[in-house]
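## Example record

The block below lists the input lines for one assembly entry, exactly as stored, with component labels intact.
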Amino acid sequence: MADVVRESVFRLQFPFQRTLGPTIGAFASALAEQTLIGVKVGDRVITPPLEYDPENGADAGTDFVRVGPKGTVTTWTWVPEPTHLHPLAHPFAFAFVLLDGADTPMFHAVNVGSVDDMRIGMRVEPRWRAEREGRIDDLEAFVPATDDGPSDGAGEPWVAPAELSVDHMEMDCDLTYVDNSAPATLIWMQALLDGKLLGQTCPACGRTYVGPRGLCCVDAIELDETHLVEVPDRGVVTNFTIITPTPYPGQTETEPFVRCSILLEGTDAVLNQQTVLEIPASEVRVGLHVECVWAPPEERNVDDVGNRGWGVGGDCMRGWRPTGQPDEPAENYVERMM
Amino acid sequence: MPRSESDIAIVGYAISPMLRRTDQTETMMMLPVVAGAIKSAGLTKDDIGFTVSGSCDYLSGQAFSFVSNVDAYGAWPPINESHVEMDGSFALYEAFVRLLQGDIDTAVAAGVGKNSNSDPSTLYTIEMDPYYLTPLGADPWSLHALQYRALLDSGKATERDVAELVARNRASAKENIHAQVSGDYDVDELLAADYIRTPLRRHDLPPITDGCAAVVLARGQKAYELCERPAWITGIDHRIEPHLPTLRDLTTSVSTTRAAKGAGLAAGPVEVAELHAPFSYQELILAESLGLGADTQINPSGGALAANPVMATGLIRMIEAAKQIIENGKRRTLAHTTSGPCLQQNLVAILEGDE
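Predicted structure tokens for the full assembly:
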């Protein structure tokens, strides 16, 4: 039989598409053409450009000028072990590069062979990726400048085309978490694997929480193993909804299905988000007596059970089926949604 | 100066154990700490007029974790509750402002962070500017190493100065039961350690900490009923600089200077300053920006280098500064919190005990 899960890894991914607007869009469109620009705000040139004056929040306008392509390192650090998020796979430097014609530096990578090649004041120039899409990393990295001369064209006006060639960017947020199961969660996991329902009863107010959550959220006191009680795996439907599946990534349901709340027999504990088996969704009703259908012990696992969402049954509980007893009056149960 | 009914003080507090990895949820970390803080002020949960917590769903990776965390207050019958996606010291600021309305006389502010679930090098990279920094993998180690080098290049500090303050903070932390990192360290040995990002060494980083803290605030006469020597918050201010580190002079902290001015630092000397400097060298920038002299003791707790439960570290500075008044009889102390990359945001509070 499966064991409790002490640590679970989960990956949070959000694919964002960001619109860029008239200023960042102009910078991105220029990048795609291997051109760096800043925005003139008062007597300063801010690079990369912003829509507002960082000194006072005023509209920065769109008085763009070309900057660089060469620049000077004003501070730097060495990345000896790059991660998958970094622009280069081998050791490199991150630096602030003050591009010729700009008054604020730009954060970027500098690609040199060794940490000993880096110094404040060194002159660098961009190395562009062959394929560019208007992102800051189209500029793969700065590299030592091939000559000591100034940049050509720095400070010249740059007029944005009427239609920007780049107006959005794709940005994937990708985070991995490793959560560990709290003591109360482990108790719940083991109970599910054993085919029984456990709760904790608060000694102050007498409320029973199923599954155990380690605290009474009314009295704000800790509950532990001395407060455990076994509760019946039978109950009455107190509320339900019929969900018509809409396609989204990860959706496995194709037909309308029921999720219901069940008040466990002889307790005041309600399990939410439960599945009803053996009858059509249209026949589920408030007041229906149901009993838990457990998976065979060898098929049970608690991989989906964690610290989030109390009462999740993992792959231990298949769902709940009608017992055949006469319904309870619905009006006695509608207040027990949670 | 006699206190009025619009003066607000810290009158109770509690701090959880500071752990590299707890087996508890944020809610369960908060439960005994909130209860402990309320008890330390001689109150029960039903006496509290307002509660506010600081936490961040992204740290633990749980959507709406701040809603679960309300369970730690015992929120029935319904309570007045608020939340900031920031350090608990900003929650304290909200509680302070709420108390100024004058209709309630007690409040609880808490901060909690289960930092061990996530990897700071990826998490805080996602938090950066999405156009100009995140696509380059601008991680916190790199950004802070750039700030550290800028400080060295300015001639205001040397690597030895920084190693000495690391050794001092870790030695101070020996007396702090809530320290995660403490002990006696030789400066030359610290300087011999490898760089993880030149000029940052591992000991320049804060530890990864799971932890929680909570305070009880009281207004006017109520503060005297609950605490023999309340730590009066005589000024509090929060200032923010542009989010892109490239737009700032990283060797100084204008927002700290302005927040200190707003909080009334100039009205007199401070005996102890608890500065939130998660990266070692930042303590030097902050001390200079605050104009602190040799007569101010900095971080007797060991500061954020001793324990760094993100979302509670700043509130702990507030508690440590308050303890100096409540328990050690100090007259005037300073608490500071930072937020954002390279000291972007800074909050300064001045605490005073009665003569």
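The two ends of chain B are 8 Å apart (CA to CA). Chain B touches chain A through 60 residues (CB under 8 Å).
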